[in-house]
Amino acid sequence: MLFKKDNLNIFFILLVAFLMYKIVDNHKYFLGQLAILWAILSPFFWAFATAYILNPLMVALEKLDNRITRPISLIIVYILFVGILTLAITIVTPVIVKNITEIIEKLPNYIDDTEKWISRQVLDYDLLEQLGINTYIFNNLDSIFNGAVDFLNLTLTGVVASIIGITSGVAKMLLGLVISVYLLADKEKFIRGIKKNLYAFMGREHADKTIDFGNEVNRIFTNFFVGKLIDSMIIGILCFIGLSLLKVRFALLLSIVVGIFNMIPYFGPFIGAVPAIVITLFYSPIQALWVTLFIFALQQFDGIILGPKILGDKVGVSPFYIILAIMIGGGFFGPMGMLMGVPVLKSFFVFWDKILVTLLKKKNIEAI
């Protein structure tokens, strides 16, 4: 043969090395081209995300009754999905924007009222004065409130930016919604095409292992996100009911924040509780105490009863590794990294475990 396998491998390595050199040497140009490519392909990313989220519901409907064909299941799923989006855009979003605007406008008054309440209730006690605690609180009151205001501004700005970002990307979302219909309608064809390519280029043994790994990763992500989404929606609804009964202002906005951050394991519930407690503290410290107790009780209910019932052992990662994944993911990629860290880490464990099993088999050592 003109080209032996070893020569092809050397040629491939040299080609990759040359391409890597050109990318590093012209990194600004390539980054610009990647940005353009991302903008072009963003509707397809929206489509894949939408199809991935809706696929479990579509599969469940088709398993429920054999008479439910693919066109019928697609119609049902997209009617529900579009209905929820319409509800969020027409009813929920205006209320959120109104609440955020009102909070920002009234922040100075809330701060003044809270400072006066603290002065009356805390700083006048003789025991605190003797211990010097009231002096410390008085001297640091401004910095405490400035820190709270900065945190609220960051949180509220993030919510507004997300709403604006979603609004500006409506056209891409709509296009992605249309593309997602075709993805779900012909998903079996796409899967067969992927498998055909894997078998053609990797051979049966390696292709089977790759497909098994892909199925396991898909199961990890689906179980984690579907379970956490259902769990967080229930917690958000219960939080809204509770805050409404307590007659807390901005109950809808605060409940949505609690529900969204509840998607993040361990740290999420505490992060989501902070805005609710701080905002309530500004206009009613006593009510803030009740809000704190209610959200704490709600989190205990979620952690002890609701979460295990819905999620079970869907991820199967110890708390140590979950916290590690959240901190690393959050440090590099922010809130999205905190959300994705756990299933990504679990997928890596599955991949690494398969490598270890293969290496142990080659050494004739039984897996420990």
From TrEMBL:
This protein's major location comes to membrane
Q: Does the keyword Amino-acid biosynthesis apply?
A: no
Name the GO cellular-component terms: plasma membrane
Please name the Pfam families in this protein's record: AI-2E_transport (PF01594)
Q: Which GO terms describe its biological process?
A: transmembrane transport
Keyword annotations for this protein? Cell membrane, Membrane, Transmembrane, Transmembrane helix, Transport
TM spans (from-to): 7-24, 30-54, 75-97, 159-185, 229-246, 252-282, 289-308, 320-345
InterPro entries the UniProt entry points to? AI-2E-like
Provide the membrane topology annotation.
Multi-pass membrane protein
Q: Keyword check for Transport, yes or no.
A: yes
Q: Which PANTHER family does this one have? A: PERMEASE PERM-RELATED, TRANSMEMBRANE PROTEIN
So what family is this one in? Belongs to the autoinducer-2 exporter (AI-2E) (TC 2.A.86) family.
| Name of the protein | Permease
